[in-house]
Amino acid sequence: MTAALHAEWIKLRSLRSTYLTMLCALALGTGLGFLDTTSVAHHWTTMSAQDRAAFDPVGNSFTGLAFAQLAFGVLGVLAISTEYGTGMIQTTLAATPRRGILYIAKAVVVGTVALLLGETFAFGTFLLGQAVLTTNHLDVSLTDPSVLRAVSSAGLYLWVVAMVGYGVGALLRHTAAGIAVMFGVIFLAWPAARAMETWSYLPDKLVLSNAADVLGQVHALAVKPRLPSLGLAYLDLLIYLVAALVLGAWRTNRDA
Amino acid sequence: MAWAGTVLPMIEAQELTKRYGATVAVDRLSFQVRPGRVTGFLGPNGAGKSTTIRMILGLDTPTGGRALIAGRPYHRLPYPLREVGALLDAGAVHGGLRAGQHLAWLAASNRLPHARVAAVLDRTGLDAVAGKRIRGFSLGMRQRLGIAAALLGDPQILIFDEPVNGLDPEGIAWIRGLMRALAAEGRTILVSSHLMSEMALTADHLLVIGKGRLLADAGIDEFVRSAGASTLEDAYLRLTQDAVQYRSTEVNR
Description:
The complex is a heterodimer. Chain A is mainly α. Chain A is 80% helix and 0% strand. In chain A, α5 runs antiparallel to α7 and α11 crosses α13. The two termini of chain A are 20 Å apart. The model of chain A has no long low-confidence stretch (mean pLDDT 92). Chain B is α/β, with parallel strands linked by helices. In chain B, strands 5-6-7-3-8-9 form a six-stranded mixed beta sheet, with helices on both faces. Chain B has a three-stranded antiparallel beta sheet with strand order 2-1-4, with helices on one face. Chain B is globular. Classes of the chains: A mainly alpha, B alpha/beta.
């Protein structure tokens, strides 16, 4: 297993796509978050009381992560789909014929990178956002209630998106298809669930990005009652994670 | 020879079978590929050569029978690259990696000393381009890289699937010399090809399959003689004429 881990680590750190996707995540994550907090800080005095009440100092600094998450999903997809796209999977499986070991080794390598970067982004954008909000004394500290939970969960969420991407990439064995599915899961599931609200709030509660909203904010629950509870939001992450990884594992065990 | 124990570094197929739905790609194929010689693996398009090689390497699971490397299925080999080197199609690499990086991860995956990377780059004449991304490689350079990867673990068994495809005459001569040299070192060499003239120069022994079945397993001279032919190409065309899927009328003899 350590040999396979080492090999997968060399692959991941040698590829330019790894740095490009994470650079995109960084630019979108911190850039858009910074712009959003700056805008709030500028307009705070003219904002309505309702908008002020809805303002979440933690969630607001995470605006960019809503876009950065696609880059994390793409990182996960690419980690395995390019093996099939280029045909390198044949070389990889000839070197590591036991599929389970290969699948886990890749998951551990991509997962470790995604978790470290995800948490770094979460804490980085949080601190940047709070620095901007200081001017209006709107900032909160990590020691305030729920703040540490919200920030670390935002990083955890990015890790989950990367792992879902990995499972989807392994299942579909195709880069474009994998990214399209991730785009759907991340961005399109939300309006689809909204469309069904007349009948049920259940789809809303199972949408991954809604779970992210709940996890990455301090008082999302008070503002939006149709969102999942905090517990259900964590369960959502687990469901997506397990479903994608199991499907990916199933396909990986089949003829390459 | 550095081979441990008494088991010969042999490739063995026992009643090897692969079906895709109703199609039988490989049909109860049994053969042994022995050390110390170059064994040519011939057959028309769709005969099942690639599928057979993929089953030997554990890439595809047989529907029936089994393929063994020195008595064990491929996926049981603890460090497969130390026992079997394979050149599949030259595209089986990620273009975004540099040649040296590609060999480095392969070495790491089988706990081979990193010095092997430099050794095979040198043997395949790729040392000058080790730092270049594979994306920019010509087909000939990719073939050399594939061969470097196959040689990485200094294996006793080597499998080359269409190694001379797209190579210039110098490259073809180089691969021929390499395969002859590897066989002379006592290694087991299995090489598939469609080029009969090239096979006549390279192979000592032939396995010919058609429609997934074994048509011949013989020394090259014996093969040509028993077909009553004067050249390998003649003998091959006679033997496989009932086994090809597509043929224009002019080629029928």
